[in-house]
Amino acid sequence: MAAIDPLTTWQLVTIAGSGGFVWNMMDLWEDGKKPSDKRTPKDLRYWIFFIFWPCAGAALAWLYILDGSTLRPLLAFSIGLSISSTLQAMVAKVVPLPPPDKEERQN
User: Fold this and answer.
1) Where exactly are the transmembrane stretches of this chain (predicted)?
2) What are phi and psi of 81, to 5 degrees?
3) Model-level pTM?
4) According to the model, what pLDDT value does residue 84 have?
5) C-beta of residue 86 within 8 angstroms of C-beta of residue 61
6) Residue 63's closest CA among 85, 42, 86?
7) What pLDDT was estimated at residue 89?
8) Which own/partner pairs from 4-12 qualify as long-range (CB within 8 Å, at least 24 positions apart)?
């Protein structure tokens, strides 16, 4: 595996984070077009995810780099831009555990 250049890594991770930030800006823009009663409330949960998505995009780009994958700036930006869809797809694939039988719960 080739050595990882810290400057390139930092740049690609930042580009991926900016993709997540652009996603947030597009979401805010679209939300601003809605009537005020249909807008998403900007509560604490909203702002936590506002920070989370760029960080998650940056983290996923960092994982790609650590894995040795070739990552170019446009791909890094796309990773950040699509991180919410990527994580939702990954979570949807998780198979839930079946509930325990009644007999097992009583014991």
Assistant:
1) 7-26, 46-66, 73-91
2) -65, -35
3) 0.77
4) 87
5) no
6) 86
7) 86
8) 4/65, 4/66, 9/62, 9/65, 11/73, 12/61, 12/65, 12/71, 12/73, 12/76
Q: Which two tokens stand for residue 29?
A: 């823009």
Q: How far apart (Å, rounded) are the C-alpha atoms in residues 103 and 89? A: 35
- Cα 43 from Cα 83, distance rounded (Å): 22
pLDDT at site 105: 57
Q: Could you tell me if 13 and 58 are in contact, meaning their C-beta atoms sit under 8 angstroms apart?
A: yes
How far, in Å, CA of 95 to CA of 87, rounded?
15
Token pair listed for 11:
């740049």
Pair of tokens at residue 94: 């998780």
* Tens-digit pLDDT profile for residues 91-105: 887 777 777 776 655
* Tokens standing for residue 40: 């998403």
Single-letter amino acid code for the residue at 92: A
Low-confidence ranges of the chain (pLDDT < 70): 1-3, 102-107
End-to-end alpha carbon distance in the chain: 52
